[in-house]
Design a protein that fits this description.
single chain, 14 helices, 12 strands, globular
């Protein structure tokens, strides 16, 4: 069973988690080379900015000196490492691809119908893939292959998968995939000032994560019908383009509204959100200091508290590792003419702006529950059954007493 001490130890061992700047991240033109022009949403992940680093941290847990001292944690760390290495080994053996290092980015273009129902997306993976990857997967799954310009495509569970001329792996509906893996595909060109040119520019800043949402009038109506009249439906119906970005050193927002009043509401809401984020960085530090100051008063009264007192310095260190001081740089720019709001919050690292301490209560609860699930359960106790009282056996018969019979044929002699 995991206690707070075990959780603190594990979280400190995971303090190497983070996001790196990726100087080799693709530009906007590269990411949008196979864009679906009528897509309503774009989701982009720069996997090289976070996967290799964090996978290394996870697989290194069994070698952490503090983890080694706690058998339950060590067993869990070994299990996690085995699962990661199992996935990696299977992918390498079957397709010749390491999913944690060979994929450099993933982009999805999602369209929805006029009723708000999402359609099958187009997914573009970039990285280092074997030239015969599709053929290998097709052979394993029994899927038929079709060559396009000398490169194989295959259909798997309703999706067509193929490799483009530049090496990108593309999957999605046939009508979207086949023209894009063809050598004759031409990347779309965006008009200056268009929504797509804005998305392109945001991608040029090399975010780790980008989510761009475009709202057609039909979708705005569908959203209002689904959610009713409230602030959320006003946001959905009111925006033309919303772009949320996560960077190695902070987060950003670009918002283009249909009205000046709507733009001003979003700017005010953004100020409130980032004020809360400042507090979310500072408040856990204050609470940790209060706890460390108070704990010694309860020494010797509880085994768990005594363990926490012994690790009180680690409590402070833990909060410092996963949060900032709330003094991140914040820029909010409004353009009334263009009806846009641009927000960028920057620190030395991502957790200076977006503190992981907001997630710590959930992580702690999950780890403690996991420990409880893995702890061996004692055998169930059978309820005591009250046995009926036994009657004492009757006393043995005495000679000539009641219950004796005289032998048949005998007579009493007369004197």
């Amino acid at each position: 069973m995991f206690g707070f001490v075990e959780v603190i130890t594990l979280l400190l061992a995971l303090s190497g988690f983070g996001v790196d700047a990726d100087p080799k991240a693709p530009t906007g033109d590269t990411v949008l080379k196979f864009a679906v022009e009528d897509a309503d949403a774009v989701v982009h992940l720069d996997t090289q900015a976070f996967l290799p680093r964090n996978i290394k941290v996870v697989t290194g847990l069994p070698d952490d000196a503090s983890v080694k001292q706690i058998p339950e944690l060590l067993a869990t760390a070994k299990e996690i490492k085995a699962n990661v290495e199992g996935v990696r080994g299977m992918a390498k053996a079957m397709a010749g691809v390491d999913p944690f290092t060979d994929i450099s980015s993933a982009t999805a273009f999602v369209s929805v119908d006029d009723h708000g129902e999402p359609q099958p997306p187009l997914i573009v993976l970039r990285g280092s893939f074997p030239s015969d990857l599709v053929k290998k997967v097709a052979k394993m799954t029994g899927a038929a292959t079709t060559p396009i310009d000398g490169r194989d495509t295959m259909e798997l569970e309703g999706m067509v998968v193929g490799t483009a001329k530049d090496g990108a792996l593309i999957a999605g509906p046939r009508a979207l995939v086949e023209p894009r893996v063809d050598d004759d595909w031409k990347a779309p060109r965006w008009k200056r000032g268009s929504l797509w040119s804005t998305i392109d520019a945001e991608l040029d800043a090399k975010p780790v994560v980008m989510v761009a949402l475009k709202a057609r009038p039909e979708l705005a109506k569908a959203a209002r019908d689904a959610t009713g009249d409230n602030f959320l439906s006003d946001l959905i119906a009111g925006h033309e383009l919303a772009i949320f970005t996560v960077h190695h050193d902070g987060i950003g927002l670009y918002w283009k509204d249909r009205s000046k009043a709507g733009m001003q509401r979003v700017a005010l809401a953004a100020e409130g959100v980032f004020e809360l984020l400042r507090a979310a960085n500072v408040a856990p530090r204050a609470m940790a200091k209060l706890a460390v100051a108070a704990l010694p008063s309860y020494a010797g009264k509880n085994k768990t508290l005594d363990q926490l007192i012994a690790r009180k310095d680690d409590l402070i260190k833990l909060v410092d590792e996963y949060s900032g001081d709330g003094k991140f740089d914040l820029k909010i720019k409004q353009d009334a003419k263009a009806r846009t709001v641009t927000v960028r919050a920057t620190g030395k690292k991502l957790s200076d702006v977006l503190p992981a301490t907001m997630l710590l209560p959930g992580v702690v609860a999950a780890l403690v529950m996991r420990g409880e699930e893995e702890a061996p359960m004692p055998p169930p106790r059978r309820p005591a059954v009250k046995q009926p009282a036994r009657k004492a056996p009757p006393p043995p018969p005495t000679k000539g007493g009641l219950g004796t019979r005289k032998p048949s044929g005998t007579t009493k002699k007369s004197k």
